[in-house]
TrEMBL record:
Keyword GTP-binding: no
Residue ranges of the TM segments: 12-36, 56-80, 149-169, 210-229, 235-260, 267-285, 305-336
Protein's UniProt name: AI-2E family transporter
Protein source organism: Thiopseudomonas alkaliphila
Alphabetized UniProt keyword annotations: Membrane, Transmembrane, Transmembrane helix
Primary location: membrane
Membrane topology: Multi-pass membrane protein
UniProt signal peptide: none
Family assignment from sequence similarity: Belongs to the autoinducer-2 exporter (AI-2E) (TC 2.A.86) family.
GO biological process, one term: transmembrane transport
InterPro entries for the chain: AI-2E-like
Lineage summary: Bacteria, Pseudomonadati, Pseudomonadota, Gammaproteobacteria, Pseudomonadales
GO cellular-component term (any): membrane
Length: 391
């Protein structure tokens, strides 16, 4: 009956979801802006506590973010672009090495078929692609400029994200209060409690695992570059990004680094041991320093939940789904936690069958042994009788 009574609200919710699905292609900049505002709000709140106005606090936070991003990009972009161009040029050589060195070794040691890879066709495809694009930079430029609308969309997002982020961050507390004011009075407490739990789960993941990810990326990239690995920066940053899922960064990074090391150094022992040492050091620092310091014992997202959420979001909604994956996973985790508690308190879980009641031991009968005597205590509702019996 209550469902029929509240059908306008369900209809409005369905229309809202349909509208969001229809405008999904243009939601990406707004979701990125929402994430920036969510992450920047605690910093602005702290500046407000020190006496700054909300608007001035937002300007200060934006200035710091822009300076940090500008410095990081100015340092990393030239290095990464050089390594990408180098990797792009090395691909035919890598295919040749795999065809004439790795595959024969695998055929001799493990019996892998020697014709598993057609290296000539791959090298021909790489060569034709290089001739057409004149390097990785030309290939990227050709892709970007191939569509005027794509270029316009990129520029529009580049301008739109900071503007939307500024207004969302400035009015964040007002928007939160307005949303809370729209909640039904009867269910406000429960919804607010669940929202706080979602915030704790998602905040623990963002403040914890993402900081660990950045730290590990820096450690891996620095160590591999010091070892002289040509693709050290690229592999290190890739391993850091993959560390958004615990231990995946280690697996992806050490595999890619060893392959690049074998291609560059051959099977020399010391460079390969150095690569293993870099990743072993990173794992040790993560377990003993980074995770206890940055994550602690806060409840975050389970690694399996992170993997499934990202893959499902990307499969269903593309890049926008990837952006929504982690917040959605946090909400689902909190909901499942409440469903679990409701199930444990329900009659379905606590009710015992008649057979279980008959199998229970007799109440009030206990036997203890001490030396040669046995004390038997039999309790009833009216009296307690103690009998000492010798063996």
């Amino acid at each position: 009956m209550s469902v029929i009574k509240n059908w306008p609200w369900f209809a409005a919710l369905a229309l809202l979801l349909a509208f969001l699905y229809a405008v999904m292609p243009i939601l990406t900049p707004f979701l990125v802006s929402l994430l920036i505002a969510y992450m920047g709000d605690p910093l602005v709140d702290k500046l407000e506590e020190r006496g700054l106005s909300r608007t001035l606090g937002v300007i200060v936070v934006f200035a710091v973010i822009v300076l940090i991003l500008a410095g990081v990009l100015a340092f990393l972009v030239p290095l990464i672009s050089k390594q990408l161009v180098k990797l792009y040029g090395m691909l035919p050589q890598m295919v040749d090495w795999v065809q004439h060195t790795a595959v024969p070794w695998l055929h001799t040691k493990l019996g892998v078929p020697s014709d598993i890879l057609d290296g000539d066709k791959l090298k021909q495809a790489f060569s034709e692609h290089l001739d057409k694009t004149s390097g990785a930079a030309g290939f990227l430029l050709a892709k970007v400029t191939a569509s005027g609308m794509a270029l316009f969309g990129f520029v529009a997002n580049f301008v739109l994200i900071p503007v939307v982020s500024f207004y969302l961050l400035r009015d964040w507390d007002i928007l939160v209060d307005k949303v809370r004011g729209l909640l039904p009075r009867r269910g406000e407490g429960a919804v607010v409690k669940m929202a706080k739990e979602c915030h704790e789960v998602l905040g623990a993941f963002i403040r914890g695992q993402l900081l660990v990810m950045l730290a590990l990326g820096g450690i891996y990239a620095t160590g591999l570059m010091l070892l002289g690995l040509d693709l050290g920066l690229l592999v290190g940053l890739l391993a850091g990004l993959a560390s958004i899922v615990p231990y995946m960064g280690f697996a992806v990074g050490i595999t890619a680094a060893l392959l690049a090391g074998v291609f560059q150094f051959g099977f020399e022992l010391y460079p390969l041991l150095g690569i293993v040492g870099v990743f072993a050091l990173g794992q040790a620092l993560e377990g003993m320093v980074l995770t206890p310091l940055l994550v602690g014992d806060r409840i975050g997202l389970h690694p399996v939940a992170v993997i499934f959420a990202i893959m499902a979001g990307g499969q269903l909604f593309g890049f926008t789904g990837v952006l929504l994956a982690l917040p959605a996973a946090a909400v689902i985790m909190v909901l499942l936690r409440h469903v679990h508690e409701m199930y444990k308190d329900s009659d379905l879980y606590t009710e015992q069958s008649a057979a279980d009641e008959y199998d229970e031991p007799a109440q009030g009968l206990s036997v203890t042994a001490e030396g040669e005597y046995c004390l038997i205590k039999q309790e009833t509702q009216d009296s307690t009788q103690v009998v000492n019996a010798a063996e």
